[in-house]
Amino acid sequence: MKIAIVGATGAVGQEMFLCLKKKNIPANKIEFFASSRSTGKILKTDFGEMEIKEFSVEKMAEFDFVLMAVSGDFSKKFSPQIAEKSIVIDNSSAWRYEKEIPLVVPEVNFHKAKNAKLIANPNCTTAILAVALWPLHCEFKIKKCIVSTYQAASGAGQPAMDELKTATEKYLQNESFVPENFAKNIAFNLIPRIDKMINNGYSKEEMKVVWETRKIFDDESLKISCTAVRIPTFRAHAESISIETEKEISPDAARNILQNAPGIEIVDNPENFELPMPLTATKKFNCEVGRIRQNLVFGKNGLDFFVCGDQLLKGAALNAVQILKSLL
Amino acid sequence: MKIAIVGATGAVGQEMFLCLKKKNIPANKIEFFASSRSTGKILKTDFGEMEIKEFSVEKMAEFDFVLMAVSGDFSKKFSPQIAEKSIVIDNSSAWRYEKEIPLVVPEVNFHKAKNAKLIANPNCTTAILAVALWPLHCEFKIKKCIVSTYQAASGAGQPAMDELKTATEKYLQNESFVPENFAKNIAFNLIPRIDKMINNGYSKEEMKVVWETRKIFDDESLKISCTAVRIPTFRAHAESISIETEKEISPDAARNILQNAPGIEIVDNPENFELPMPLTATKKFNCEVGRIRQNLVFGKNGLDFFVCGDQLLKGAALNAVQILKSLL
Fold first, then answer.
1. How far is the alpha carbon of A240 from chain B, nearest alpha carbon, in Å?
2. Do B189 and A224 make contact, defined as CB atoms within 8 angstroms?
3. Could you report the per-residue pLDDT of A101-132, keeping only the tens digit for each?
4. Are residue A173 and residue A303 in the same domain, yes or no?
5. Which ipTM did the prediction report?
6. Which domain does A28 fall in, by range?
C-alpha cells in the first residue's frame, strides 16, 4: 500500500505522517508532497528524514491513498481528479457540505467512508465535539446543544503557533508586536471570532460545528448553538458543552456510557484537579472528557461537561488516519 | 468624609484607591490598612505614595466608609464590629448569602444599599454578568441563562498574576516550573475549575454566579448554569452567554436596550474584529458587550452574546466604589 501526504510542510501534514506510523498503518511507501516552493526540502521527523516532492495530479495515481492537508481552494481544484485513481481523504472544508461526499468521524459513522473515493475530514472543533456527543446522543437523544470553545493557535496553522510564542515573548519584554496570523495580538488575550463572519451574526467556524455535527450524526433536528473563541494555548482545543436530552440523563449514567466509548478518556476528578486541560490532552489520541454534571437549566434532562482534545490529532490528522484505517 | 481601605497590599485594595480618585469621590482622608506584616510599607500609586498602617477595629471608628479587600474569614471576624460605627463595603464572599445583607451591583439594585451598615460586593464574574444581563431581564424577562467563563489570573490575586508571568517565561525558556497559586501550570493552559468543589458537581465559583445573580435580581425563578474556566490572561474576565427569554428577543432589540444601559460599552463589529477582548477591556470601567446574535437553540426567544470586563474594576474595586458613591 502506498500513501501520499499533500501539504506536508504544514502542522497537520506532518502529524498525519506521525499518526500513520504510530497507528502502524502497513504502508510500503509514504511520500511527502507540497508546492514547488518546498521541493527538495528535507523534513526531520521522529521516524526519520523525509524529502518533499513537488505535487502533480499525475504523480498521485500510483498511491492508494492521498491525504490532503491543503487549502480548500487547492482541494476544490485537484481532489476530484486525484479521486479518479486514488482514495482521497481531505482535511479542508471544500467538500464537507456536498451531499454525496461522506463527512466522517470513525467513532460515529465509519460505514459512510466505504466505497467512497473522496472523503471529507471534519472541522477540528466538530470532530472533538462529535466523539464525546455521539455516545450520549445514541443513548439519550440530544435535542439541544450549546457549546463555547477555547481554541488553540494550532487551528490557524504552524505560523499561528509560532506567532503565539513570539507575541508572548514580545509582551513579556515590553516590546510592541504587530500580529500577522491573528487579527489581534493573541498574547494574554482571547479573540471571540474565528474564520470569517456570515450573515446570521455567527462566524463560519461556529456554523461549521452546527452544519457538520448534523451531517455526521445524520440528524437535522439537532439544535446547536456555538461560540468559537481563540485563546492563547498551543494545540489542544477545549469545549464547554451543555445539552438537553429527550430521555432523562444523570451524570453517572453519562459517565458509564462515555467510559466505554471509543476515542474518549474520562478525566473527571475535579477535587484533585484531574480535569480536561491542554496541559494533559496535548499529543494524546483520545479526547479528555470531564466536569460531568447535571445542567442546572435543563434539570433532569440536561448535562454539562467539558472536553479537551488535540486539535492536530483528533481535530485533524488522527481522524484522517482513522478513516484510512477503517477502510483497510 | 474619611475612607479606609483594609487589605491595601492586594490588587483589589489598590484598585479601590485608584477608583476613588478617578471617580472623584470627595474624601478628606483616605487611609490604607493591612496586617502588621505590612505596617510601614510605602505603596507607590498613580496618585502619590501611601503608607500602610496596621489594622485594628478601633482605628476604623473614625472612618465614614471602610472598604474591605480581605479574606472571607477576616471579614467574618471584623466586619460586624466595624459596621457598628462605619459603613462597611465588603468584597469577600463572607456576607453575600446572608438574607439581611444587601448584595449590590449599583446598575441593578443600588437602592438596596440605602441605610445598610454592611453591604456585600458580588463575585467578579457575577458583577460583570449582571451588568449586561439586567437590562435584558427588565425588557425580555430571562428564563434560562447558560454561561461559560474565560477568567483571568487576577481573580486569584496579585501573586497569581505574577505566577502567570513567571510560568510563561519558564515555559518559553524550556525550564520546569512548579505552580503555587494555581493547582496546575497556567502557562498556555486552561483550568476548568475555580474555587473549591461542592457536592453537586459544580465549583463554588460557578454556584456563586447562580446564587448571587438570583439575589441581585431578586428573582429565584431565574435558571442559570455556569462553567468557570481559568485561562492565561491577566485581568479581564470574559463570558460566553446564552439566554432564553419569556418575550421574543432580536439582536437589534437587545442592542438598542444595551446601548443605553449604564456600565456597558457595545463593541460589536466582528467584521472588523471589534470584539469584547481582554486586550481592550483591561483597565476600562465599562464592560464590553458584543457578538450579539440570535441563539440557534432557543430561536426567537434566545440570544447569544459575549462580555468582557476588568475583573479588578467592575469585578471588584469599581463596583465597591460605585456602591459608596450611590450612598453619598
1. 7
2. no
3. 999 999 999 999 999 999 999 999 999 999 99
4. yes
5. 0.96
6. 2-122+317-326
